[in-house]
Amino acid sequence: MSLAISPATMRILEAESVAAGTPAHRLIETAGAACAQAIMKRWPMLRRVLICVGPGNNGADACVCARVLAQGGVSVTLLSWQRPRTDAWLDAACAAGAVHVEQWEPTLVERLLPHVDLVIDGLLGIGLSRPPADMLILLIETLNARPRRLPLVAVDVPSGCDARSGSIPSVAIRADVTLSTGPVKVGLYIPPAALHCGEIIELDIGIHLSPTDRRATRVLSSVHAESLLPARPVDSYKGTYGTVCVWAGSEAYPGAAHLACMATARTGAGIVALAASPAVLPLAWPTPEVTLVPLSDDPHDALVQSHFSTYLVGPGLGRSTQTAEHLKTFLGSADVAGRPVVLDADALTMLARIPDWPHLIAAVPCVLTPHFGELRRLAGGTLIDLPPVERAQHYARTWGHVLIMKGSVTVIASPDGRTALWAHPNPVLAVAGSGDVLAGIVAGFIAQHCDLYSAACLAVTVHGLAGQHIAQTTGTAGVLASELAAAIPGAVQALRALS
Q1: pLDDT digits (tens, 9 = 90+) for 394-410
Q2: Does residue 158 have a cis peptide bond before it, meaning omega lies within 30 degrees of 0?
Q3: Which is nearest to 18 in space by CA: 8, 10, 26?
Protein backbone atom coordinates (compact mmCIF):
# COMPACT_ATOMS: atom_id res chain seq x y z
CA MET A 1 0.00 0.00 0.00
CA SER A 2 2.70 2.50 -0.95
CA LEU A 3 0.82 4.32 -3.71
CA ALA A 4 -2.60 5.94 -3.79
CA ILE A 5 -4.53 7.29 -6.75
CA SER A 6 -7.53 9.44 -7.53
CA PRO A 7 -10.74 7.94 -8.94
CA ALA A 8 -9.98 9.67 -12.24
CA THR A 9 -6.59 7.97 -12.41
CA MET A 10 -8.21 4.61 -11.62
CA ARG A 11 -10.54 5.05 -14.57
CA ILE A 12 -7.58 5.87 -16.81
CA LEU A 13 -5.72 2.78 -15.60
CA GLU A 14 -8.78 0.62 -16.25
CA ALA A 15 -9.09 2.08 -19.76
CA GLU A 16 -5.40 1.43 -20.38
CA SER A 17 -5.83 -2.16 -19.21
CA VAL A 18 -8.78 -2.66 -21.56
CA ALA A 19 -6.87 -1.09 -24.44
CA ALA A 20 -4.01 -3.52 -23.72
CA GLY A 21 -6.35 -6.47 -24.18
CA THR A 22 -8.02 -7.14 -20.83
CA PRO A 23 -11.82 -7.11 -21.28
CA ALA A 24 -13.70 -4.85 -18.88
CA HIS A 25 -15.75 -7.77 -17.57
CA ARG A 26 -12.51 -9.59 -16.72
CA LEU A 27 -11.48 -6.71 -14.44
CA ILE A 28 -14.78 -7.05 -12.58
CA GLU A 29 -14.38 -10.83 -12.34
CA THR A 30 -10.86 -10.46 -11.00
CA ALA A 31 -11.84 -7.80 -8.48
CA GLY A 32 -14.87 -9.68 -7.16
CA ALA A 33 -13.01 -12.97 -6.91
CA ALA A 34 -10.10 -11.28 -5.11
CA CYS A 35 -12.55 -9.86 -2.57
CA ALA A 36 -14.09 -13.29 -1.98
CA GLN A 37 -10.68 -14.91 -1.55
CA ALA A 38 -9.56 -12.24 0.92
CA ILE A 39 -12.76 -12.68 2.92
CA MET A 40 -12.49 -16.48 3.04
CA LYS A 41 -8.87 -16.20 4.12
CA ARG A 42 -9.78 -13.75 6.88
CA TRP A 43 -12.90 -15.64 8.02
CA PRO A 44 -12.35 -19.30 7.06
CA MET A 45 -15.36 -20.46 9.11
CA LEU A 46 -17.74 -18.03 7.44
CA ARG A 47 -21.23 -19.51 7.04
CA ARG A 48 -23.73 -16.71 6.44
CA VAL A 49 -23.20 -13.35 4.78
CA LEU A 50 -25.35 -10.37 3.83
CA ILE A 51 -24.13 -8.53 0.73
CA CYS A 52 -25.56 -5.14 -0.22
CA VAL A 53 -25.07 -4.24 -3.87
CA GLY A 54 -25.64 -1.00 -5.74
CA PRO A 55 -26.03 -0.08 -9.40
CA GLY A 56 -22.46 0.41 -10.64
CA ASN A 57 -19.26 -1.55 -11.08
CA ASN A 58 -18.77 -1.61 -7.32
CA GLY A 59 -22.05 -3.52 -7.11
CA ALA A 60 -20.88 -5.81 -9.91
CA ASP A 61 -17.68 -6.57 -7.96
CA ALA A 62 -19.85 -7.43 -4.96
CA CYS A 63 -22.07 -9.68 -7.09
CA VAL A 64 -19.03 -11.63 -8.26
CA CYS A 65 -17.90 -11.86 -4.65
CA ALA A 66 -21.36 -13.19 -3.75
CA ARG A 67 -21.19 -15.81 -6.50
CA VAL A 68 -17.75 -17.05 -5.46
CA LEU A 69 -18.73 -17.21 -1.79
CA ALA A 70 -21.93 -19.09 -2.65
CA GLN A 71 -19.95 -21.54 -4.78
CA GLY A 72 -17.72 -22.06 -1.76
CA GLY A 73 -20.65 -23.13 0.39
CA VAL A 74 -21.42 -19.83 2.13
CA SER A 75 -25.09 -18.92 2.58
CA VAL A 76 -25.42 -15.57 0.79
CA THR A 77 -28.26 -13.09 1.03
CA LEU A 78 -28.07 -10.42 -1.66
CA LEU A 79 -29.82 -7.12 -1.01
CA SER A 80 -29.90 -4.83 -4.06
CA TRP A 81 -30.43 -1.09 -4.36
CA GLN A 82 -31.19 0.33 -7.80
CA ARG A 83 -29.57 -2.63 -9.56
CA PRO A 84 -31.59 -3.74 -12.62
CA ARG A 85 -33.49 -7.01 -12.31
CA THR A 86 -31.98 -8.17 -15.59
CA ASP A 87 -28.41 -7.62 -14.46
CA ALA A 88 -26.14 -10.48 -15.56
CA TRP A 89 -23.85 -10.20 -12.54
CA LEU A 90 -26.80 -10.48 -10.19
CA ASP A 91 -28.25 -13.40 -12.16
CA ALA A 92 -24.93 -15.28 -11.97
CA ALA A 93 -24.78 -14.84 -8.21
CA CYS A 94 -28.34 -16.12 -7.83
CA ALA A 95 -27.63 -19.05 -10.13
CA ALA A 96 -24.80 -20.02 -7.78
CA GLY A 97 -27.20 -20.07 -4.83
CA ALA A 98 -27.34 -16.52 -3.50
CA VAL A 99 -30.81 -15.43 -2.34
CA HIS A 100 -31.81 -12.08 -3.84
CA VAL A 101 -33.91 -9.67 -1.78
CA GLU A 102 -35.08 -6.90 -4.07
CA GLN A 103 -37.94 -5.47 -2.01
CA TRP A 104 -36.72 -4.48 1.43
CA GLU A 105 -36.91 -1.79 4.07
CA PRO A 106 -34.61 -1.01 7.01
CA THR A 107 -36.66 -3.06 9.47
CA LEU A 108 -36.08 -6.15 7.33
CA VAL A 109 -32.35 -5.45 7.36
CA GLU A 110 -32.45 -5.08 11.14
CA ARG A 111 -34.03 -8.52 11.39
CA LEU A 112 -31.44 -10.05 9.05
CA LEU A 113 -28.34 -8.70 10.79
CA PRO A 114 -28.43 -10.94 13.90
CA HIS A 115 -28.52 -14.04 11.67
CA VAL A 116 -25.38 -13.42 9.55
CA ASP A 117 -21.66 -13.62 10.30
CA LEU A 118 -20.51 -10.83 7.98
CA VAL A 119 -21.86 -7.87 6.03
CA ILE A 120 -20.35 -6.77 2.71
CA ASP A 121 -20.90 -3.24 1.40
CA GLY A 122 -20.92 -2.99 -2.41
CA LEU A 123 -23.43 -0.15 -2.67
CA LEU A 124 -21.41 2.84 -3.90
CA GLY A 125 -17.87 2.92 -5.25
CA ILE A 126 -15.59 5.65 -6.53
CA GLY A 127 -18.35 7.20 -8.61
CA LEU A 128 -19.99 9.07 -5.70
CA SER A 129 -21.06 12.44 -7.14
CA ARG A 130 -23.82 13.50 -4.74
CA PRO A 131 -25.10 12.60 -1.27
CA PRO A 132 -26.88 9.24 -1.01
CA ALA A 133 -30.66 9.13 -1.55
CA ASP A 134 -33.00 8.93 1.46
CA MET A 135 -33.56 5.16 1.27
CA LEU A 136 -29.84 4.55 0.99
CA ILE A 137 -29.19 6.81 3.97
CA LEU A 138 -31.55 4.67 6.03
CA LEU A 139 -29.78 1.51 4.89
CA ILE A 140 -26.35 2.91 5.73
CA GLU A 141 -27.52 4.04 9.16
CA THR A 142 -29.02 0.61 9.80
CA LEU A 143 -25.80 -1.15 8.83
CA ASN A 144 -23.79 1.21 11.02
CA ALA A 145 -26.04 0.29 13.96
CA ARG A 146 -25.24 -3.43 13.50
CA PRO A 147 -24.30 -5.55 16.51
CA ARG A 148 -20.72 -4.96 17.64
CA ARG A 149 -19.74 -8.55 17.02
CA LEU A 150 -20.74 -8.31 13.35
CA PRO A 151 -17.87 -7.22 11.03
CA LEU A 152 -18.52 -5.22 7.88
CA VAL A 153 -16.30 -5.30 4.80
CA ALA A 154 -16.44 -2.49 2.24
CA VAL A 155 -15.59 -3.26 -1.37
CA ASP A 156 -13.07 -0.65 -2.59
CA VAL A 157 -14.64 2.33 -0.78
CA PRO A 158 -17.03 2.54 2.19
CA SER A 159 -20.27 3.72 0.63
CA GLY A 160 -20.84 7.44 1.13
CA CYS A 161 -17.13 8.35 1.26
CA ASP A 162 -15.70 10.55 -1.48
CA ALA A 163 -12.73 8.59 -2.78
CA ARG A 164 -11.20 11.73 -4.26
CA SER A 165 -11.33 14.18 -1.36
CA GLY A 166 -12.00 12.11 1.76
CA SER A 167 -15.16 14.07 2.46
CA ILE A 168 -18.49 12.56 3.46
CA PRO A 169 -21.34 14.54 1.89
CA SER A 170 -24.02 12.95 4.07
CA VAL A 171 -23.55 9.60 5.82
CA ALA A 172 -21.12 6.78 5.14
CA ILE A 173 -20.61 3.14 6.00
CA ARG A 174 -18.31 2.49 8.96
CA ALA A 175 -16.30 -0.50 7.84
CA ASP A 176 -14.06 -2.81 9.82
CA VAL A 177 -12.11 -3.73 6.70
CA THR A 178 -11.91 -2.05 3.30
CA LEU A 179 -10.80 -4.25 0.41
CA SER A 180 -9.26 -1.93 -2.15
CA THR A 181 -9.67 -3.35 -5.64
CA GLY A 182 -6.43 -2.16 -7.15
CA PRO A 183 -4.44 0.81 -5.84
CA VAL A 184 -6.00 2.49 -2.80
CA LYS A 185 -7.99 5.61 -3.59
CA VAL A 186 -6.34 8.64 -2.09
CA GLY A 187 -9.44 9.96 -0.33
CA LEU A 188 -9.43 6.94 1.96
CA TYR A 189 -6.33 8.29 3.69
CA ILE A 190 -7.92 11.66 4.44
CA PRO A 191 -10.33 12.31 7.34
CA PRO A 192 -13.20 11.96 7.75
CA ALA A 193 -13.28 9.11 5.21
CA ALA A 194 -10.12 7.62 6.73
CA LEU A 195 -12.04 7.10 9.98
CA HIS A 196 -14.63 4.94 8.16
CA CYS A 197 -12.29 2.47 6.46
CA GLY A 198 -11.00 0.30 9.27
CA GLU A 199 -8.11 -1.80 8.03
CA ILE A 200 -7.31 -1.18 4.35
CA ILE A 201 -6.18 -4.20 2.35
CA GLU A 202 -5.01 -3.64 -1.21
CA LEU A 203 -5.93 -6.45 -3.62
CA ASP A 204 -4.01 -7.25 -6.77
CA ILE A 205 -6.40 -7.17 -9.70
CA GLY A 206 -3.74 -6.86 -12.38
CA ILE A 207 -3.55 -3.07 -12.45
CA HIS A 208 -0.12 -1.90 -11.40
CA LEU A 209 1.68 1.42 -11.15
CA SER A 210 5.36 2.19 -11.38
CA PRO A 211 6.69 3.74 -8.14
CA THR A 212 7.79 6.71 -10.26
CA ASP A 213 4.38 7.25 -11.88
CA ARG A 214 3.49 10.82 -11.00
CA ARG A 215 -0.22 10.13 -11.35
CA ALA A 216 0.07 8.42 -7.97
CA THR A 217 0.58 9.82 -4.50
CA ARG A 218 3.12 8.01 -2.35
CA VAL A 219 1.84 6.98 1.06
CA LEU A 220 4.85 7.57 3.26
CA SER A 221 6.16 4.66 5.29
CA SER A 222 9.22 3.69 7.29
CA VAL A 223 10.48 1.52 4.43
CA HIS A 224 10.35 4.38 1.94
CA ALA A 225 11.87 6.83 4.43
CA GLU A 226 14.79 4.48 5.07
CA SER A 227 15.66 4.63 1.37
CA LEU A 228 15.92 8.45 1.60
CA LEU A 229 18.22 8.68 4.63
CA PRO A 230 21.51 10.48 3.98
CA ALA A 231 24.70 8.52 4.56
CA ARG A 232 26.79 8.97 7.71
CA PRO A 233 30.28 7.86 6.64
CA VAL A 234 32.70 6.94 9.41
CA ASP A 235 35.35 9.31 8.08
CA SER A 236 33.02 12.33 8.10
CA TYR A 237 33.41 15.55 10.07
CA LYS A 238 31.01 18.32 11.01
CA GLY A 239 31.47 20.07 7.70
CA THR A 240 30.21 16.97 5.91
CA TYR A 241 26.74 17.63 7.23
CA GLY A 242 26.35 21.29 6.43
CA THR A 243 25.83 24.50 8.35
CA VAL A 244 22.26 25.65 8.92
CA CYS A 245 21.49 29.28 9.71
CA VAL A 246 18.26 29.44 11.70
CA TRP A 247 16.87 32.97 11.51
CA ALA A 248 14.16 32.78 14.12
CA GLY A 249 12.87 34.01 17.44
CA SER A 250 11.65 37.28 18.91
CA GLU A 251 11.15 38.59 22.43
CA ALA A 252 7.63 37.15 22.43
CA TYR A 253 8.61 33.78 20.93
CA PRO A 254 12.17 32.83 21.84
CA GLY A 255 11.14 29.19 22.39
CA ALA A 256 10.30 28.73 18.72
CA ALA A 257 13.91 29.52 17.81
CA HIS A 258 15.21 27.09 20.41
CA LEU A 259 12.93 24.28 19.19
CA ALA A 260 13.87 24.85 15.55
CA CYS A 261 17.59 24.79 16.40
CA MET A 262 17.25 21.71 18.56
CA ALA A 263 15.37 19.83 15.86
CA THR A 264 17.90 20.81 13.21
CA ALA A 265 20.78 19.61 15.37
CA ARG A 266 18.99 16.42 16.46
CA THR A 267 18.40 15.56 12.80
CA GLY A 268 22.14 15.49 12.17
CA ALA A 269 23.16 18.85 10.73
CA GLY A 270 26.87 19.49 11.27
CA ILE A 271 26.61 23.04 12.60
CA VAL A 272 23.53 25.01 13.65
CA ALA A 273 23.77 28.79 13.95
CA LEU A 274 20.99 30.85 15.51
CA ALA A 275 20.59 34.30 13.97
CA ALA A 276 18.63 36.71 16.15
CA SER A 277 18.85 40.13 17.76
CA PRO A 278 21.15 40.47 20.80
CA ALA A 279 18.08 40.94 23.01
CA VAL A 280 16.59 37.63 21.88
CA LEU A 281 19.71 35.44 21.89
CA PRO A 282 19.93 34.92 25.68
CA LEU A 283 16.25 33.94 25.74
CA ALA A 284 16.42 31.53 22.81
CA TRP A 285 19.75 29.87 23.51
CA PRO A 286 19.82 27.26 26.29
CA THR A 287 21.79 24.89 24.05
CA PRO A 288 25.60 25.23 24.01
CA GLU A 289 25.90 23.22 20.77
CA VAL A 290 24.21 26.03 18.82
CA THR A 291 26.43 28.90 17.67
CA LEU A 292 25.16 32.46 17.69
CA VAL A 293 24.85 35.15 15.01
CA PRO A 294 23.89 38.49 16.61
CA LEU A 295 21.91 40.61 14.17
CA SER A 296 22.21 44.38 13.98
CA ASP A 297 19.62 46.82 12.68
CA ASP A 298 20.90 45.93 9.21
CA PRO A 299 21.26 42.13 9.43
CA HIS A 300 21.91 41.33 5.79
CA ASP A 301 25.66 40.79 5.87
CA ALA A 302 25.44 38.61 8.97
CA LEU A 303 22.75 36.45 7.38
CA VAL A 304 24.43 35.79 4.05
CA GLN A 305 27.77 34.48 5.30
CA SER A 306 29.23 32.13 2.73
CA HIS A 307 29.57 29.12 5.03
CA PHE A 308 25.81 28.87 5.57
CA SER A 309 24.72 26.01 3.33
CA THR A 310 21.03 25.96 4.32
CA TYR A 311 18.59 28.39 5.90
CA LEU A 312 15.56 27.98 8.12
CA VAL A 313 13.62 31.22 8.44
CA GLY A 314 10.49 32.07 10.35
CA PRO A 315 9.76 30.23 13.63
CA GLY A 316 8.76 32.88 16.18
CA LEU A 317 10.43 35.58 14.07
CA GLY A 318 7.70 38.17 14.57
CA ARG A 319 5.92 40.14 11.89
CA SER A 320 7.04 43.73 12.38
CA THR A 321 7.35 46.03 9.40
CA GLN A 322 11.12 46.17 9.90
CA THR A 323 11.46 42.38 10.02
CA ALA A 324 9.31 42.07 6.91
CA GLU A 325 11.59 44.49 5.04
CA HIS A 326 14.67 42.56 6.14
CA LEU A 327 13.05 39.31 4.95
CA LYS A 328 12.23 40.82 1.56
CA THR A 329 15.81 42.04 1.14
CA PHE A 330 17.21 38.69 2.22
CA LEU A 331 15.07 36.60 -0.14
CA GLY A 332 15.74 38.91 -3.07
CA SER A 333 19.50 38.99 -2.54
CA ALA A 334 21.87 37.50 -5.08
CA ASP A 335 23.87 36.23 -2.09
CA VAL A 336 21.03 33.86 -1.19
CA ALA A 337 20.05 32.75 -4.71
CA GLY A 338 20.71 29.06 -5.17
CA ARG A 339 20.96 28.29 -1.45
CA PRO A 340 18.06 26.23 -0.05
CA VAL A 341 15.71 27.99 2.35
CA VAL A 342 12.97 26.50 4.53
CA LEU A 343 10.28 29.13 5.05
CA ASP A 344 8.03 28.55 8.05
CA ALA A 345 5.59 30.29 10.36
CA ASP A 346 5.99 34.10 10.50
CA ALA A 347 8.15 34.09 7.38
CA LEU A 348 5.21 32.70 5.42
CA THR A 349 2.83 35.31 6.79
CA MET A 350 5.22 38.14 5.91
CA LEU A 351 5.93 36.62 2.52
CA ALA A 352 2.20 36.57 1.75
CA ARG A 353 2.06 40.35 2.19
CA ILE A 354 4.58 40.92 -0.61
CA PRO A 355 2.94 41.51 -4.00
CA ASP A 356 3.97 38.83 -6.50
CA TRP A 357 5.96 37.03 -3.83
CA PRO A 358 6.58 33.92 -5.99
CA HIS A 359 8.65 36.13 -8.32
CA LEU A 360 10.73 37.32 -5.35
CA ILE A 361 11.82 33.79 -4.45
CA ALA A 362 12.02 32.38 -7.97
CA ALA A 363 15.82 32.04 -7.74
CA VAL A 364 15.75 30.55 -4.24
CA PRO A 365 15.09 26.80 -3.86
CA CYS A 366 12.49 26.80 -1.08
CA VAL A 367 10.45 24.45 1.04
CA LEU A 368 7.24 26.15 2.19
CA THR A 369 5.62 24.65 5.31
CA PRO A 370 2.18 26.26 5.72
CA HIS A 371 -0.70 25.16 7.85
CA PHE A 372 -4.19 25.89 6.53
CA GLY A 373 -4.31 29.55 7.53
CA GLU A 374 -0.83 30.30 6.21
CA LEU A 375 -1.64 28.56 2.94
CA ARG A 376 -4.74 30.67 2.55
CA ARG A 377 -2.74 33.84 3.13
CA LEU A 378 -0.13 32.79 0.58
CA ALA A 379 -2.95 32.16 -1.89
CA GLY A 380 -4.25 35.69 -1.47
CA GLY A 381 -7.01 34.99 1.02
CA THR A 382 -9.02 32.37 -0.88
CA LEU A 383 -7.97 28.79 -1.48
CA ILE A 384 -8.71 26.99 -4.72
CA ASP A 385 -11.60 24.57 -4.34
CA LEU A 386 -9.80 21.26 -4.77
CA PRO A 387 -9.34 18.15 -2.61
CA PRO A 388 -6.27 18.30 -0.31
CA VAL A 389 -3.80 16.39 -2.49
CA GLU A 390 -4.81 18.21 -5.66
CA ARG A 391 -4.70 21.54 -3.83
CA ALA A 392 -1.13 20.90 -2.68
CA GLN A 393 -0.17 19.84 -6.21
CA HIS A 394 -1.72 23.00 -7.65
CA TYR A 395 0.13 25.41 -5.39
CA ALA A 396 3.47 23.59 -5.61
CA ARG A 397 3.22 23.74 -9.40
CA THR A 398 1.97 27.34 -9.47
CA TRP A 399 4.54 28.71 -7.03
CA GLY A 400 7.42 26.52 -8.19
CA HIS A 401 8.52 25.26 -4.77
CA VAL A 402 8.22 22.17 -2.61
CA LEU A 403 5.19 22.49 -0.36
CA ILE A 404 4.50 20.77 2.96
CA MET A 405 0.79 21.33 3.55
CA LYS A 406 0.45 20.59 7.25
CA GLY A 407 -2.60 19.06 8.85
CA SER A 408 -3.74 15.90 10.61
CA VAL A 409 -2.79 14.30 7.30
CA THR A 410 0.17 16.17 5.84
CA VAL A 411 0.66 16.42 2.07
CA ILE A 412 4.03 17.05 0.40
CA ALA A 413 4.03 18.25 -3.19
CA SER A 414 6.83 19.06 -5.61
CA PRO A 415 6.56 21.38 -8.63
CA ASP A 416 7.48 18.44 -10.86
CA GLY A 417 4.30 16.56 -9.90
CA ARG A 418 5.61 14.20 -7.22
CA THR A 419 3.27 13.97 -4.25
CA ALA A 420 3.31 12.17 -0.93
CA LEU A 421 1.24 12.10 2.22
CA TRP A 422 1.67 11.05 5.83
CA ALA A 423 -1.55 9.25 6.69
CA HIS A 424 -1.19 8.74 10.46
CA PRO A 425 -3.01 11.48 12.40
CA ASN A 426 -1.66 11.80 15.93
CA PRO A 427 -2.79 14.28 18.60
CA VAL A 428 0.74 14.27 20.04
CA LEU A 429 1.68 16.51 17.13
CA ALA A 430 -1.15 18.95 17.84
CA VAL A 431 0.92 21.03 20.25
CA ALA A 432 2.56 24.44 20.15
CA GLY A 433 6.05 24.18 18.72
CA SER A 434 5.42 21.00 16.73
CA GLY A 435 5.69 22.91 13.46
CA ASP A 436 8.96 24.51 14.56
CA VAL A 437 10.35 21.02 15.16
CA LEU A 438 9.20 19.83 11.73
CA ALA A 439 10.80 22.81 10.01
CA GLY A 440 14.06 22.08 11.81
CA ILE A 441 14.01 18.47 10.67
CA VAL A 442 13.52 19.57 7.06
CA ALA A 443 16.47 21.96 7.27
CA GLY A 444 18.61 19.32 8.96
CA PHE A 445 18.09 16.82 6.16
CA ILE A 446 18.67 19.41 3.44
CA ALA A 447 21.98 20.29 5.11
CA GLN A 448 22.93 16.61 4.79
CA HIS A 449 22.52 16.89 1.00
CA CYS A 450 19.01 15.51 0.58
CA ASP A 451 17.14 17.11 -2.31
CA LEU A 452 14.34 19.35 -1.12
CA TYR A 453 11.45 17.01 -1.90
CA SER A 454 13.16 13.98 -0.36
CA ALA A 455 14.09 16.06 2.70
CA ALA A 456 10.46 17.11 3.09
CA CYS A 457 9.16 13.53 2.80
CA LEU A 458 11.81 12.22 5.17
CA ALA A 459 11.19 15.00 7.68
CA VAL A 460 7.44 14.49 7.77
CA THR A 461 7.98 10.76 8.30
CA VAL A 462 10.55 11.20 11.08
CA HIS A 463 8.34 13.83 12.74
CA GLY A 464 5.42 11.40 12.58
CA LEU A 465 7.44 8.44 13.85
CA ALA A 466 8.76 10.47 16.77
CA GLY A 467 5.17 11.36 17.63
CA GLN A 468 4.10 7.73 17.40
CA HIS A 469 6.89 6.65 19.75
CA ILE A 470 5.90 9.27 22.30
CA ALA A 471 2.22 8.30 22.04
CA GLN A 472 3.11 4.67 22.74
CA THR A 473 5.45 5.40 25.65
CA THR A 474 4.02 8.54 27.24
CA GLY A 475 0.50 9.05 25.95
CA THR A 476 -1.12 11.60 23.69
CA ALA A 477 -1.74 14.48 26.12
CA GLY A 478 0.70 16.72 27.93
CA VAL A 479 3.58 16.08 25.53
CA LEU A 480 5.94 19.00 24.90
CA ALA A 481 7.41 19.91 21.53
CA SER A 482 10.87 19.75 23.13
CA GLU A 483 10.20 16.08 23.87
CA LEU A 484 9.31 15.62 20.23
CA ALA A 485 12.66 17.12 19.23
CA ALA A 486 14.46 14.84 21.68
CA ALA A 487 12.82 11.80 20.05
CA ILE A 488 14.23 12.57 16.60
CA PRO A 489 17.50 10.59 16.85
CA GLY A 490 15.62 7.49 18.01
CA ALA A 491 13.21 7.78 15.09
CA VAL A 492 16.08 8.13 12.62
CA GLN A 493 17.93 5.20 14.16
CA ALA A 494 14.80 3.05 13.93
CA LEU A 495 14.76 3.77 10.20
CA ARG A 496 18.44 2.90 9.79
CA ALA A 497 17.82 -0.39 11.58
CA LEU A 498 15.53 -1.41 8.70
CA SER A 499 18.43 -1.61 6.25
Answers
A1: 999 999 999 999 999 99
A2: no
A3: 26
CB 434 within 8 A of CB 259: no
The domain boundary, picked from 151, 185, 219, lies at: 219
Domain that holds residue 121: 3-219
CATH number where 277 lies: 3.40.1190.20
Which residues, other chains included, contact 44 with Cβ-Cβ below 8 Å and sequence gap of 6+?
none
Decide: 368 and 348 in contact? Cβ < 8 Å. yes
Pairing of β 243-247 and β 271-276: parallel
Number of separate domains in the chain:
2
213 & 229 share domain: no
Residues 312 and 384 grouped into a single domain? yes
Report helix, strand or coil for 262.
helix
CB 70 within 8 A of CB 76: yes
DSSP sequence for 379-434: TTS---S--HHHHHHHHHHHHTSEEEE-SSSEEEE-TTS-EEEE----GGG-STTH
Residues in a beta bridge with 219: 421
Summarize the confidence of residues 215-236 as an average pLDDT. Answer: 95
Do 214 and 308 lie in a common domain?
A: no
The candidate with the shortest Cα–Cα distance to 259, out of 433, 427, 404, 428, is 433
Q: Are residues 207 and 175 in the same domain?
A: yes
Give per-residue pLDDT as tens, 149-163. Answer: 999 999 999 999 999
Burial 222-251 (b: 16+ CB within 10 A, else e): eebbbebbbeeeeeeeeebbbbbbbbbbbe
Residues 361 and 238 both lie in one domain = yes
404 contact partners, CB below 8 Å, separation of at least 6: 367, 368, 369, 370, 410, 411, 412, 438, 442, 456, 459, 460
- Full-prediction pTM beyond 0.90? yes
Q: What is the DSSP letter of 195?
A: G
Q: What pLDDT, in 10s, does the model give residues 319-377?
A: 999 999 999 999 999 999 999 999 999 999 999 999 999 999 999 999 999 999 999 99
What CATH number does residue 212 fall under?
Answer: 3.40.50.10260
CA atoms of 359 and 419, how far apart (whole Å): 23
pLDDT band at 1 (very low <50, low <70, confident <90, very high): low
pLDDT at residue number 98: 96
CA dihedral 19, 24, 26, 28 (to 10 degrees): 140
Taking the C-alpha atoms of residue 428 and residue 230, their distance in angstroms, rounded to an integer, is 27
Phi, psi of 343 (to 5 degrees): -105, 125
Q: Where are the beta strands (DSSP E) in 183-265?
A: 184-185, 199-203, 217-219, 243-247
Of the residues 158, 187, 219, the one at which a domain ends: 219
Mean pLDDT throughout 307-327?
Answer: 97
Contacts 24+ apart (CB under 8 A), 15-24: 17/206, 17/207, 22/206
pLDDT over threshold 70, residue 287: yes
